[in-house]
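Justification of computing resources. Each target in the renewal requires a structure prediction run like the one illustrated here; the chain below, 682 residues long, is used simply to show the kind of job we budget for.
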Amino acid sequence: MKKNLLIFRKSLVLLGFFLVTSVAFASHFRYGDISYRVDGNDPTGRTIIFKANTGWRCCPGVYLQFTGDSYGSIGSVPQNLTGNANGAEYYSGEISYTFPADGSYKVYYSGGAKIGGLSNNANGSWYVYTTVNVGSGNNSPVTSVPAIVNVQVGLPTATFAIPVADPDGDSVTYRLATTADGWNGTQPSGLSINPTTGQINWSTQNTSIGQLWNTAVVIRDSKGSEILVDFIMQITQQSNPPEFDYNSTPANGFAYQSAPGQTISFPLNAFDTDPGSTVSMFAAGLPIGASVSPAFGAAANPISHVFTWTPTPSQFGQFLINFTAQDNNGVQVATSVSINVSLKPTFDVPPTPASGIHTVYTPGDLISYTVQASDPDPTDVVQIVSVEGKNSMGNPIPIYSGANFSTIPTVASNPTSGTFTWATSAADWGHKHVFFTARDSYGDETIHEINQLINTPPVFASLPVLTADVGQPYSYTVQITDPDQAYGDQISILGISLPTWLTLVDNGNGTATLSGIPTTADAGNNSINVQAEDTHHHVDVRGIVNQFFNIEVNNCSVSATAKNITVQLDASGNATINAADVDNNSIATCGVESLVVSPNLFTCANIGVNTVTLTITDVHGNIASVDAQVTVMDSVAPSVLVKDLVVKLDENGVGLIACADVDNGSLDACGIASAVLNTTNF
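Resulting structure tokens:
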């Protein structure tokens, strides 16, 4: 049984196709793509299973025909409702057809008319096709796009990607559809697509909100198989798009390997940073039987769902699911997951760590976990045959130094397991994903990637300057330390919450300068949030750190107040005062630089009332002055010096003397106004 199923598994690929059977459905068509897989149960390789993923307002109808080495009809494709969003119902269905001979064929469906509200191709017909080289064993690429992709208005380059998965691992190229493909229409002016990445680029500067535009893209694999996808773009207002939380949501483009009966389940989490925004989700390309809990349709911020699907025994091949998060302004962001259903070996989660979800470690941590693989065929055995690292280009490399797996290969059993261990060090910083390869007895292999990040969170090493003065430059040098910088980590520093007078400049070396000049209007308390992010902060939430603080802005005020004083001349006839003598509690709210009084020297010439000026200067050069009165007094008595004198009486018996006769150098610092003898006659 296993061998037949393996042939079935290896040759099956999905192909979706739509065909409208009558014009009655003309205004309902929104979306179409076709993919196919080869039915491995047919040893001739001529039985092809086509898959049609379509989007309609209602009433789906798909009828396939073919041209090429021969012509014919394939028939109506059953349409199963898988979801609805933005006015479009999503359907999926399969139909198989055995071609009469090997050769090249173009399988298509067509109809008309498209909706009349389109800004291009209004009321035109649709034509969706795939090319099949019957007998080659090739399977087509698979895509999934929302029936209506919302694009923001007024952008010089609006972008979104066309996701693709190829079950054979073939490389693919992209181009815009033309009339040479059979597609009936014209592309929007200025629309282009990157031929290797599938990114749509379009200037929406000349569009208006609410407009609908039609486009179609042709995807071709390296073996020549082509699929065409036709969809609508709607112009919406501008806002920041929602974000998927990839700490829990599988990484964009993540690939699951599964088997019939094996349940796949993963969380879907999204959020929006715009205040007051809400987020809702929907999906294109949901497999028949898949469920989402809670059901799509509700809006919240953040929002969470869980996808669950257990493939049935008839569900084989490549499935591509496009999940879209949309805010209340209609702005979207998309992420895709592919699921390949086959009878290849599978990795059992748990105990094996799940793919698509990063486990974060700090350098020095011991990483240890069990890896277990099994095979859906209970009669088969499986081994884990290789353990490899992953380089920056996504390619396998030898396992990292110091990392070990218990035994390679593991024992051939069902299941089989081993233990991965690694004592990490500082030099192991970065994404260190590990590829495990399991192989069954038929040689079928499955690769399981475990996402590991080794990272040290950054730390603020600086203390903020907490005061500033109106009209004066403020500066704070932010410093971040992160030992991972020595191994290639880079730090970004952002001003998340800043008043308008402050600007933060990231110096690119783990430092930043926060600076500005506050005005009077900024006086008071200013709340600040400076954020630092390392390279891997999107995966390691510890990689974002914040420094919250408040800057008190002082509105500098200078006030001079003086008091009148009296001073006494000294014995030398001098007196000196300082500013503190006349200061009467002068104030400089931002700090006193100097306090000066002038004049401050007095002599005998200044006896009496004198006017002086007290000047206060703050640390920023702001000045205030006030006058005061200084009364100068001379209270020091003169120094009287005399000498003895002999007086000779004249012939009349009288002797006269004067002050000068007995003065022996009497003195006073401010001068002697008068000298009087109490007796002058003898």
